[in-house]
Amino acid sequence: MSVLYVPHLMLTTLSISILALIALNIVLKRPRHMSTATAALFLPLIASTLLATFYSGGKFTDGVYLSAKYLGDFNFLVDYVSGPIALTILGVSMVISIYAYPYMERKFEEEGEQISSNMKLFYILYYIFSISMYGSVISTNFAEFYLFLEVGLISSFILINNYGYGDRRKIALLYFVWTHIGAVLFLVGALAFGYYEGSLNVFGSGGNIVYTGELMQSVAKAVFALMLVGMLVKAAALGFHLWLPYAHAEAPTPISALLSPLLIGIGPYVIFRFLYPLFPAQFSDARLLLAVWGALTIVYGGLNALFEKDFKRFLAYSSISQMGYLIISVAAGNIYGFIGLILHYIAHAFGKAILFASAGSVIYHENGLRDMRQMGGMLKTLPMTGNTALLGFFTITGMPPTIGFWSELFIVRGVVEAFYGMGAEGLAIIALLFIGFSLSISYSFYRYKEVFQGPPKFGERKKEDPFIIGSLITLAILAIALFIVAPVYANDLTGYLNSLKALAGGA
Length: 507
Description:
Elements: H1 9-27, H2 31-54, E1 59-61, E2 66-68, E3 72-74, E4 77-79, H3 82-110, H4 115-137, H5 142-163, H6 168-197, H7 217-234, H8 244-250, H9 253-263, H10 266-278, H11 280-307, H12 311-332, H13 335-365, H14 378-381, H15 383-397, H16 403-419, H17 423-452, H18 466-503
Antiparallel strand pairs: 1-4, 2-3
Helix pairs in contact: 1-2, 1-4, 2-3, 2-4, 3-4, 3-9, 3-13, 3-18, 4-5, 5-6, 6-7, 6-8, 7-10, 8-9, 8-12, 9-13, 10-12, 11-12, 11-17, 12-13, 12-16, 13-15, 13-16, 13-18, 15-16, 15-17, 15-18, 16-17, 16-18
């Protein structure tokens, strides 16, 4: 029984925030005010999500707000699984919205664009993109999830198309096509599920799985495979990754800071949240293949990151590698792996947001420079950027005192426990995981040394923009604070995940 119940708390807060965004766009005249106003709009959502997660006995259902024949019921579920993921999306999006103003203002000035109208449109699309990710992770119905996913893909496509770099229109189209291949595969699987099951519901009004498990085995396999591949495309797993280095490198940097950690991480989250409890037998059959896929993704992304010279493409390849950790965590199929998945989503979100924001700081202060071979000594010229970037690398490589330490600890335990007794295949998976860790450490600190250490190549210390530095420091503080909070949360999460594992038949 929930301690807290406020009917339609999430829906009401979300609706009011969208209406407020429209009103502010009409009322506000100065572009700078759009930045602070957009950031402020995240606060009610953060507050309501915190309440729903931690003051509701660990499970808060918002109440059915739409019901239709064949589609089923639209509801929001905020619990110990979705709540922290949703809070991460909101928190990172809020901080980056502050960071974005000086960066985008400089970009509009350099391109001779009208600042006021472009800034307003940018922030409207930015907010829609952010809350679409938020809505997708608390959805309880396949159709509801797909609608939020589609809104996020379209808004991010427009952001890349309008405000990206290089051949941005071709890159935006590449992004649109690939992400929609994944989305359509998932949708076809969902529609097949709904056809045989009678609705697209995953969780009922009480927050429990409602699937009866009566799909024919052949149908269940096909539905599972379609949805799984769709989410692997979304996660840019090896073989489905071709679009990511282009899209994430050439997107405007504030959007890269959302795309790379937040959006693509939803793929592995959905595999765990929806597919694991709905299709335990099929999930169990696919675990070994999924683990190998994740391990190879880690190594492939790490090797490309090690040899990449462009700062943003380097971070994009790093994100491919980090998605491998999420995939292998799901494949472990045990409590430690699942905790590792959730914690590493959070760790990667903050770590990669710091690193993309640091890359953007270099681009902002050094007139668009992205080639790391031309950098060096920036710890002296951009000291706050350099120090926070170091913490970002600490976070994605699992170094204390950041949350990444705990996430990788749980991943290792989960993977070793799952695959150690499985013969040569299991040992190969574990070996690839540790090779991946070595690559992550190598590319992170090799590139940090190349960019930030040594004699400065660009003269004296520069005055770093306060909006940019303030955002970087905030993200860094949160990454450290989460290092303290993570063990407590993991302890509370264990019992909740045990109940989910029981629902899935102990797969």
